Amino acid sequence: MSKTVIKANTRGHADHGWLKANHSFSFAGYHDDARTHFGALRVLNDDSIAAGMGFGTHPHDNMEIITIPLSGALEHKDSMGNHGVIKSGDVQVMSAGSGIQHSEFNHSKTEGCTLFQIWLFPNKKNVKPRYDQRTLDVTQRKNKFQQVISPNENDEGSWIHQDAWFSMASMDKDLELQYDLKRNGNGIYLMVIEGEIAVEGELLQKRDAIEITDITSIKIKASEKSEILLMDVPMKW
After folding, report:
1. pLDDT the model gives residue 102
2. Domain boundary among 135, 158, 176
């Protein structure tokens, strides 16, 4: 087993007034040679967007982009004609493929919103762009893993062009969960959304993360009520 702990306060940080962002990997004005990606996982941004503010129309290509709102609501428009609002409990996927343009704004004029935006390198280039938005039953992650992303169209949650699986869990104090790797050769990137957990001998608190490779399963124990995001991603693709 190989593991690396990433403490929340060591992430890159940007404060643009209307946008406060924490970068787990090199992004925009933040660069760290030791943190450019974890396998196919290229971006994990922990963003807080002020009321009524957001990102104007901009392009993407050949990237799988997953947005997971944590609070508030985000409004999306894109060059394929999609227009929707996502909120906590939803997951949004945009396969940029051969090219897409989109905008995303805080849907509220009075309240802030927070979200994770996650990018993965795809396993197929120049695919036809696609958009998907799902509302999940969050009760299904109570003291167990709920799959929110997979490579398979017929699985729970949404799907992407990559052999990666994302799961979320809401854990009660003292609960222990075991996660079994979905694909040989993948690694695990786990972030604590809220609370405090122990993973393979490491104590992680709010927004701390851990990278783990060379394993087939891990055990996670909550030392207080906690929420986690676990990403099972290819190290080679």
Report:
1. 96
2. 135
